[in-house]
Amino acid sequence: MRSFTDLADLTAAKGEHLGYSAWREVTQEQVAMFADATDDHQWIHVDPVRAAESPFGGTVAHGYLTLALLPALMTEIFQVEGITMGVNFGLDKVRFPAPVRVGSRVRGGAELTDVKNSPAGKLVKVKMTVEVEGQKRAACVAETLSLYVA
């Protein structure tokens, strides 16, 4: 994990790749719980028998579930000390180039692409790429925005 002592230290790393999270398995239980939480019970996510006949050969995670993993993945990659809080400010761009098959393992990679001054602190853009083990194309590429307050 990369640790920044303060916002100045973080700002100095603009343009750098910050590292990778650990690999984690995406389970059918997670997918089912996400389906219940979002009322998105499309068969490709929750019906293993029917999904086995699909081009994916089994169930796949919701794209938004993959996106929802980003905060957990980011906390494994880097931390900023010397702040009073960090809050999710939004997203600039999100793409889902490839599916995440249930049972596969994913990890996140983080690139610090921008740091801007804000009246409250620093607005930080991190390009997160979610990789699937053994798969060439990323499952998710998202430009995350976080507001860090000193």
TrEMBL record:
Question: According to the UniProt entry, where is the signal peptide?
Answer: none
The superkingdom of the source organism is: Bacteria
Residues folding into a coiled coil are none
UniProt xrefs under InterPro entries: HotDog_dom_sf, MaoC-like_dom, NodN-like
Chain ranges of the MaoC-like domain? 12-130
Q: Which family does it belong to?
A: Belongs to the enoyl-CoA hydratase/isomerase family.
Name the UniProt record assigns to this protein: MaoC family dehydratase
Which organism is this entry from?
A: Streptosporangium carneum
